[in-house]
Amino acid sequence: MSKLTPRERTSSRVAGLFFAAGCILVVALQATVGLYFTRHYFVAHFLLGLFLPFLFYSMGGMRLTFWIGMVLTTTWHFGYELWEDQLDRPAYTPDWDQIASGAVGLVAAWLIYRAWNRLLDLKTKQSTTARPGTSR
Q: What is the pTM (predicted TM-score) of this model?
């Protein structure tokens, strides 16, 4: 891989911290109210969709790594819910609450990604338009 730009390094670091915060949140929720195999299971699907793409984004801080994370997370989430989870059931009965919450998490991840990049674009624009000799 080529050398990362300062923007990519910053994005990679922040995405890694965001993913780590998500992991801490999941562990805290599991230890307190419980997520897996409880009535709160849909929250785990939301958090998966929200945080997992940022694991991939942290591996390079580039648009490509984020979208690889989105595609892999989407494939895993919907593939599991619509196919794998159905193999041990007598009838095809998707868990629509879990499917929808995972989709909402993925949309939220995309919105956070867009907001982060707009913030970086704004900072770049401000730093390039600042006059020499003035403070930022």
A: 0.86
Would you place residue 89 in the very low, low, confident or very high pLDDT band (cuts 50, 70, 90)?
Answer: confident
**DSSP symbols for 74-124:** HHHHHHHHHTGGGTTSSS----HHHHHHHHHHHHHHHHHHHHHHHHHHHHH
Three-point CA angle 86, 102, 14, nearest 5°? 140
Rounded CA gap, 76 and 85, in Å?
A: 11
CA distances from 39 to 35, 36, 48 (A): 8, 8, 16
Confidence of residue 16 (pLDDT cuts 50, 70, 90): very high
Between 127 and 58, name the one with better pLDDT: 58
15, amino acid identity = A
